[in-house]
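Open question from group meeting: does this chain pack into something compact, or does most of it stay loose? Before anyone orders reagents, we agreed to write out a predicted structure and look at it together. Recording both the input and the output here so the notebook holds the full record.
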Amino acid sequence: MRRTRLLTLAVACTAISAAVPATAVATFPGANGKLTFTRSTGGLSYIWLMDPDGQNQTLLADGSPSNQFGSSFSADGERVTFATELPGSKMGVVVIGVDGSNPTLVTDDASSFPSPHFSPSGQQIVYQTSTPGNEDLAIIDVDGQNRQLLTSGPERDFEPSFSPDGQRIVFSRYDGTGINIWTMNAAGQNQVRLTGGSTDESTPSFSPDGNRIVFVQAPPGDMPGDVVVMDSDGQNQQPLTNSPGVHDGGPVFSPDGQKIAFAQFPSGGGGDGEVIVMDANGQNPVALTQNSDFDTQVDWQPLNPPGCSLAGESKSRNLHDVTVTLLCNENAAANATGELIAKVPKPRVAAASKKKVVPLTPASADVPQATATVLTLAIPKKGRKALKRSGKAGTATLTVTVTDDLGESAILTHAVRIKKKKKKKK
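C-alpha cells returned:
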C-alpha cells in the first residue's frame, strides 16, 4: 500500500540577473527514503542519489553529455523527473525510473530553469516554460500530451509545486520589483500572493500535512538567504536558520515531517555547496555531503509509504464539526475518530483552568483513488459548551484508520487547532 506523495525540485533565483541553484518541493507524508540532488563538478551537472544519512552516493542518469538539474520524485517514489539541456539550445523535461531505467523525454519547450514537479497522481508534471518575451508555468501529461499554460502575465513565474492534496500550486513570482510567493489552484486560477515586503521570498515547499510552507528569505536581489517557515496562508513566519556568510537554499520537509533538507553554499560565490539536514525546528544541522563538488537541489523520496495521507488543512465550522481531508493512492475505506480538548476555567478559582476532553462523533467514508475526500466529525453539544466557556481556542486530536482493497491498514494521526469566532461588535 502506497501513500500519495508529491515532491518537486526547483532553482532558486535570488537575483533575476543571476540564477542561484536551489530547490523547492512539496512533501507528502511517509517514511524517509533516499535523497536526490544535483552535483556540479568539472563544468557539468548531474542527478545523484544518496541514503538519508549521506551514504551510498550514486549517479542516477549515467552517460549524458548534457547538464542535468532540478530533480523531483514522483508521488509513489518510483520515478524521478529532472531538467536537461538538449541540442539546439533547448531545455527538456525527462522522466526516469529511480533505478535509472527507461529515461523518457516529456517535453522540449522548458525554460532555463524548468523546476519540473509531479502531480499527486503522478500523471502530470508542472514546470516553467518559455513563452514569447517571458517565462510562465505550464502543466503537461507525463506522456507529453495535453500541455496547458497556467500563467501568462507579464511577471516571471518559477519554482512551482503542488500541495499534498493536489488542490493548490505554490510558486515564486518576480514582478519587476521583487520575488514573492504565490498560490493558485491546479487550473491556474485564484492566484493569491502570500508574501510581500522588503525581502525576496522563493523556493516554496509544502509540509507533508499541507499546513505549512518552508521557503528562503533574502535581501532584495542579493544573498545570503535563510530558511523560513510559515502557515500555508502566509501567516506566522518563523526563521529557522541564520547563517552569516553562507546562503541556505531550496528547503524541503522530509516525508515524516520531522526534518528539513536544504543546500548551503558561500554567499559570495565560489566554494563548495553541501546538502544539509536539520530538525524541522531548525536545530541540529548536519552536512550530508562534504566534498569539493557543488551539491544543491535536494529532494526526498517516500519509502514504503502507506496508501493514504492526511492532506490539506483540517478545519472547524462554527464549532459544530471538525473536518479532515484524505488522499489515497488506491481505493480505500476510512474510519475517523477523535477527541476535543478545551481548557475550561475552574469555578471560583482565579487564573486556573482544567482540561475538558470530549469524544468527537466518528465518521467513515469510501475514498476513491487519487481523490481528495473530506470526513466530518461532529462536535457534540457538551464539547461546544466547553469551547464557548474556554477563553482560548481548543484542539482536536484525530485518528484515522484506513484500509485498502487488500485489507492492509494504516493509522494516521493529526492535531488541529479549533479557532473560536470573534463576536462582532454592535
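Observations to bring back to the group:
The chain has a mean pLDDT of 82.
The first strand starts at residue 31 and ends at 41.
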